[in-house]
User: What shape does this take?
Amino acid sequence: MTSETSEPAGQPRGALATRTLAMPADANPSGDIFGGWVLSQMDIAGGITAGTFAAGRVATVAVDAMTFHRPVYVGDVLCTYADIIRRGRTSLAIHIEAWAQRGRQGDRVKVTQGVFTFVAIDDQGKPRPLPEVTVSGTDHLTNNEEPAV
Assistant: This one.
């Protein structure tokens, strides 16, 4: 693995879904943010994206292919990016990347990525079909297309 300083910055995949500041309460005694906290931020980002696309309530049903590349530190701004990669009758698979902006304004590095699957549900918690037409503003997230800039 290359060091953070020699690795090219790269660009996030997908649309910005959330930004949040990593706080001391989210860290272990060594000052690294808990992986579970990062995972929960990614789940929130996926839920926002899926809920918008599904035009309603969604539930997380699977998390696959999680890879933790680098630690997140107290004071980093965690930015999550979401890209819908697969659409079923009732479910969506979303590739989510988490990038840390070091020290709130420093270099941006990819820290985590994974694929989250959400299912659209009704008021009784039962799966429901996704809308036939995508919700305005999320068209650019489908079929692995590049996000609108």
User: Anything to note?
Assistant: The domain at 15-132 is CATH 3.10.129.10 (Thiol Ester Dehydrase; Chain A). The chain has one domain: 15-132.
